[in-house]
Write a structure and sequence with these properties.
Blueprint: H1 2-15, E1 32-36, E2 38-39, E3 45-50, E4 60-61, E5 66-71, E6 76-78, E7 81-83, E8 86-88, E9 99-105, E10 111-114, E11 117-118, E12 125-132, E13 136-144, E14 152-164, E15 171-174, E16 177-180, E17 187-193, E18 198-201, E19 209-219, E20 228-238, H2 240-254, E21 271-273, E22 281-282, E23 287-288, E24 290-298, E25 321-324, H3 328-332, E26 337-345, E27 350-358, H4 359-362
Parallel strand pairs: 1-22, 2-23
Antiparallel strand pairs: 1-3, 3-4, 3-8, 5-6, 5-9, 7-8, 9-10, 9-11, 10-21, 12-13, 13-19, 14-17, 14-18, 14-20, 15-16, 20-24, 25-27, 26-27
């Protein structure tokens, strides 16, 4: 009886969960956010910004900072600012036997440093594999380290896919005239960087082998699979401390939402303020090499039963419009409407007007680029 009572209590708890949105007090405090890592065998890119309130989607770049990579009892290497809040080093080959840290001096003179961290050498990615499942395309990463030096890993990836606009335009409005279009605005490529935290370890395994780690799942009707899809996977070996940072960050950002999820905890990382130790800084600057691998998946490699979206989903683009020729200037001069094809009528095939569509339905560049990536094949 008591088990039934306990079960009933658990059911009641589970069925009475309602969303709770607490009132958040606006904070006037802002903290330095450090995003990036020290690439021991390549170019390091560090992005600096200021934290914002929970309700804000804005990004406030930290500009005009002085940024160095410093070797413990050794040289340092400057990272000039290339874009607002983005600092990039030269190609570097750091000594794997040394420890390094990041030094930052903001435009207002406040100094920050990360902890000196040993260099972790990242093993190569053995392969990126995939499997067509009931839900869609499941991608996996495989790796190993014969030297057993790397036991903690993190992965990130860049996705690129080919897509089309809803309608293909062969015409272009230029200086009150409509001429044949020279540029292709029908075929484009989209790119997306991963945001989910992907980490794994082999600490409890007898062999240091990562086998079929599930990296990304694309649903069978994903627009990314319409023509051809590519993924560039980046692998990083981590210290245990950095692994624990990413693990805690993942729990805070991805696992919150139900009664039984863990409560968020403060995750700060290994960056500290030298000028005022009580000032908080956010981020973890690791020191490791990066290994990468790219694969392509073509549409004809996937099950024929899968229905992929025609480019992006265009709910407002099911049928193109028509514009009479006398109104073409009014329709096309602001660029919000695009001519697609001419319409001829009558026994003499006189020009009557134009098949046309909204910019978002015709020009794929509103959702990507029509410049073919160098790596595309």
């Amino acid at each position: 009886m008591k088990y039934l009572l306990l079960l009933g209590m658990l059911f009641a708890l589970g069925s009475c969960i309602t969303p709770f949105e607490p009132e958040v007090t606006e904070s006037q405090l802002s903290y330095l956010v450090v995003d990036g890592f020290i690439n021991s065998q390549g170019i390091s890119t560090i992005k600096l910004s200021q934290s914002v309130n929970l309700q804000s989607n804005a990004t406030i770049p930290e500009r005009k900072a002085i940024v160095y990579i410093e070797q413990e009892t050794g040289p340092r290497y400057q990272l000039p600012e290339t874009n607002a809040g983005t600092y990039v080093s030269d190609q570097l080959a750091l000594n794997s036997a040394k420890s390094y840290r990041l030094y930052i001096k903001t435009g207002t003179g406040v100094e920050y440093v990360s902890d000196y961290t040993e260099v972790k050498t990242t093993p190569p990615i053995d392969s990126i594999t995939w499997k067509a499942t009931d839900r869609g395309l499941q991608l996996y990463v495989n790796s190993h380290d014969a030297n057993t030096a790397a036991r903690h890993y993190r992965w990130a990836y860049d996705e690129t896919w080919q897509f089309t606009s809803a309608f293909e335009s062969l015409m272009e409005y230029k200086q009150k005239d409509i001429v044949f279009r020279k540029d292709d605005i029908y075929h484009c490529w989209g790119t997306e960087k991963s945001t989910a935290i992907r980490i794994g370890n082999t600490v409890k395994l007898s062999q240091n082998i990562v086998s079929r780690y599930p990296l990304q799942l694309l649903l069978s009707n994903s627009v990314k699979l319409r023509y051809k899809y590519s993924i560039l996977v980046k692998q990083y070996a981590l210290t245990q401390q950095e692994y624990e940072y990413w693990e805690a960050l993942g729990k805070n950002t991805e696992n919150i939402g139900t009664l039984f999820d863990p409560l968020p905890s403060q995750v700060t990382g290994n960056v500290h303020c030298l000028s005022k130790p009580e000032i908080l800084a956010l981020g973890f600057v690791g020191v490791q090499s990066e290994t990468v691998q790219r694969i392509f998946v073509a549409r004809n490699e996937l099950p024929r039963s899968w229905v992929a979206g025609n480019g992006y989903s265009y709910p407002a683009c099911s049928v193109p419009d028509s514009v009479i020729d006398a109104q073409r200037d009014e329709a096309f001069k602001f660029g919000r409407y695009i001519p697609i094809l001419p319409i001829y009528k009558g026994p003499t095939n006189e020009l009557w007007g134009w098949v046309a569509g909204p910019l978002d339905c015709v020009d794929c560049r509103t959702r990507g680029t029509n410049v073919r990536p160098d790596f595309w094949k």
